Amino acid sequence: MILKDEIGPEYILKVYDPQVGMEGFLVIDNTRLGPGKGGIRMTPEVTEEEVFRLARTMTFKCAIADLPFGGAKAGIVWKGGDDKLKKKFIQRFAKRIKIFTPKLYIAGPDVNTGEREMKWFVEATGIFNSATGKPKNFCKVFGERKKCGIPHEVGSTGFGVAQATKVAVDILGLNIKEAKVSIHGFGNVGSFTFKYLTQMGAKVIAIADKSGVIFSNDGFEKKLIEEIIQKRKEVINYRGKAQKLKLEDFWSIPVDILIPASVTDVINESNKDKIKAKIIVEAANIPMKENIEEELFKKGILIVPDFVANAGGVISSFAEYKGYSLDKMFSLVEKKIKKTTEIVLKESLKRGQNPRKVAINLAKEKIFSKKL
């Protein structure tokens, strides 16, 4: 169901292009703080309801990070095809929602979309600020100022997830250098989370993607993992010493920190009772339904909500929107993620309340504090 409440959604748009068979959705949830910000997801099973849930997450994410954006999200039903067809889908979608950009909606990357797709989107709308996450060599001069893209491929989201994880570890009185971590999903977010957590000294002992699971209680060889990332191989092709497990076995591995970085509702009724972790940091958007999250919290697992932990991407988008450098962007991500995570988790432990509820209340306060 799509929840209709005091927040929104303000607009729900369905588009269809009969020439290429493109079907898409745009949900602009709330624009009190600014234009709705949210990426374009391209999957075979994306639905209007999923896009709404993601848009609501973006509303809270932008508010709690103190960004001048509202919340929105887009989805295109994509069953696969060559790049030529994909470009047509993106650009037909862009032209149909152009009337909303950038005053009410600013696009960005999400599942199956990245810097290339954002460039296609902007080329179709003819509006440079209609999307963020563009290639870094895709620039435009505004007066005397040159603005360029900041692609999410530089790792802003994974960097932010690592910062949130460190705060959670410190709050529980654990040592990041003794922490064992498992990561579900090894695309852009999961791989950069791995990079920055291992730099902090954490030991990642299990990684899963759609191909399966690799497990090593001693961790993984950095060079061999880098090979997997750079060549975009499935993790099951890891050439180092590790056990190869079935996907369903991933959830039973005892760790200090579990990081879902893959798809919506990846933690569900089939695996929630297998989880053995002290902390869950939600790198993916809506990786579980709220009732499951509440159940795990009551079992004593500290959970960093998605719109707190993975806000690095939208903070990067804000930096691009303002024309900031990469260094300034990363500095801003670190500052905002650490501050928000600490406030939410400390208040959660103080009240004995699920961090999501604490974070939503804080976000609502920010949303409704602005007078229309």
Report on this model:
This protein has 372 residues and is of the alpha/beta class. It has 2 domains: 125 residues, Rossmann fold (3-Layer(aba) Sandwich); 177 residues, 3-Layer(aba) Sandwich (Rossmann fold), CATH 3.40.50.720. Helix content is 39%, strand content 19%. It has 11 helices and 15 strands. The strands form 3 sheets. Strands 12-11-10-9-13-14-15 form a 7-stranded mixed β-sheet, sandwiched between helices. α5 links the parallel β9 and β10. The longest helix is centred in the C-terminal third of the chain and has 26 residues. The radius of gyration is 20 Å and the shape is globular.
Describe how the helices and strands are arranged:
Elements: E1 11-17, E2 22-30, E3 36-37, E4 40-43, H1 48-64, E5 70-77, H2 83-97, E6 105-106, H3 115-125, E7 139-142, E8 145-148, H4 156-171, E9 180-184, H5 188-200, E10 203-209, E11 212-215, H6 222-230, E12 243-245, E13 257-260, E14 279-281, H7 290-298, E15 302-304, H8 306-309, H9 312-322, H10 326-351, H11 355-369
Parallel strand pairs: 3-5, 3-6, 4-5, 9-10, 9-13, 13-14, 14-15
Antiparallel strand pairs: 1-2, 2-5, 7-8, 10-11, 11-12
Helix pairs in contact: 1-11, 2-3, 4-5, 4-9, 4-10, 9-10, 10-11
* Multimeric status of the protein: single chain
How do the strands line up in the largest sheet?
12-11-10-9-13-14-15
Mean pLDDT: 96
Number of domains: 2
Number-wise, the strands total 15
In DSSP terms, counting alpha (H) and pi (I) runs of 4 or more, how many helices?
11
Sketch the major β-sheet: 7 strands, mixed
Q: Any idea what the CATH superfamily of the largest domain is called?
A: NAD(P)-binding Rossmann-like Domain
The amount of helix comes to 25-40%
Q: What is the CATH domain class of the largest domain?
A: Alpha Beta
Q: What's the gyration radius in Å?
A: 20 Å
The CATH topology name of the largest domain reads Rossmann fold
